[in-house]
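[Meeting: bench + compute handoff]

Bench side (C.D.) handed over the final construct sequence. Compute side (W.E.) agreed to return the predicted structure before the next meeting so the bench team could plan truncations. Sequence as handed over:
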Amino acid sequence: MKKLIPLFVIVLFACSSYAQVTLNPAPDRRADEGEGPFDRLIIRGAIVIDGSGAPPAGPADIVIEGNKIVEIRQVGVPNVPIDEKSRPQGATKEIDAHGSYVLPGFINLHAHVGGAEKSPNAEYPYKLWMANGITTIRGVPAANVAWTQEEKKRSATNEIVAPRIIAFQTLGQGENWKGGPVYTPEKAREWVTWAASQGVDGIKFFNHDPDVMKAAIDAAHENGMGTVAHIAQPMVAQTNALDAARMGLDVLTHYYGLFEALYKNEDIQHWPADFNYNDEQNRFSQVAYQWDKIHPRGSKQWQDLIDEFLEHDFIIDPTMTAYLAGRDLMRERNAEWHQEYTLPSLWDFYTPNRENHGSYFYNWTSWDETAWRNFYKVWMSFLNDYKNAGGRVTVSDDASFIYNLWGFGYIEEMELLQEAGFHPLEVIRGATLHAAQAIFEPKGKPIEFGVIRPGLLADLVIVEENPIENLKVLYGTGFLKLNDETGEMERVGGIKYTIKDGIVYDAVKLREDIKAMVRNQKK
């Protein structure tokens, strides 16, 4: 997005920037990209982290026929030889996973494929996601309606190397929508009916009058569609997170509307007199100064909000990684993956300027970072308390703005949830089971992926290191660890295989493809 646009459209992560027709679809999947699906694939000797919150268990053999899991058989105990006679037989393909960990494929509930200014080719974000274990994305939106629907079909039939795509769109979007802007409840219902006919899976809200939003939520649920809201600052004075939950909203993304539902001495944020929403440094620095304006942790108001969210079965998808540069700009700008994995065109987009969304670090100060660190402490404490009370908190990356790279940002989000107080098993459950429920519950259907169970789709991640011991092993870059035998630091981890629909992708090769794209663009 090169120029600031009217307020009705700008509200965050300006959906028009995803509608660029110059974004190239992914190329057809080559013969050497992914193996399978197989008549009978057996993953041998794995330690299974099933995504439900259950502890790791193994060694186990996982049997996959076509694109479905048909059996998970525990075949022994640690440090004792496996009785080969007890193992499932008849494999047409085997993967030796002894000592490795198998998890469900990760689900990213807040995804944008991006625009041509960042990456001209959709292949780049797709492979970054797949290389970091993400087998399903919920585009909010991924790109414009027709483009997304076509890519969604191609991914579903595995014609391309890409995560499965769940397509959400914003009100009024669509090249074939002839109804004009959506300003009224009647027009909202009309657009939702049209979007459902186009195969759109759900609605992303930014900035709407309450009656319009309520009408759209009701119509969405009547059509088996999901709803998620980024309650933008121009909207939050009328609708905070609690108001949205009462309307029936399924998922809150980011933090907008959450703090506003807990104000103690104000009704709307008391912005400075010279505040201008279209000045993004204004907008993103000042929002953090809410951290001490709310009823504190442990107060009746804090607990009442948690209780009512639970009543409404509200899901929170925080995307903490999207704002991480706010509390430590130097860390995010110098993350070790940028050199090999970030395209020069994307780096240009990140570089501070007044036109590109999220590139607002014109004069980022220690005051701003301190406010954001305090903001994170409060935000994280609410997320952890909500999870402890039984609420569902999911994982996503909302890349790529603010030095936040597709795929890598997703693993960062996992680490941030652990910092908030989540056990890694709770983090993984948010990335898999709970995210799958967010997709399928509005449809009125049981989940089709998201845990390792017979009968579900074979979407899996295989990693040789223990992610419960260290979530950093899930990064495409792995992490540095001392080898006591050699006395040298060595890089370990990184996902080995990403399996989607029973097709086995070499995640190392995917990462090499991405690095080649970066090298070629640098040339």
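W.E. noted at the follow-up: The CA atoms of residues 85 and 504 lie 26 Å apart. C.D. will use this when planning the next construct.
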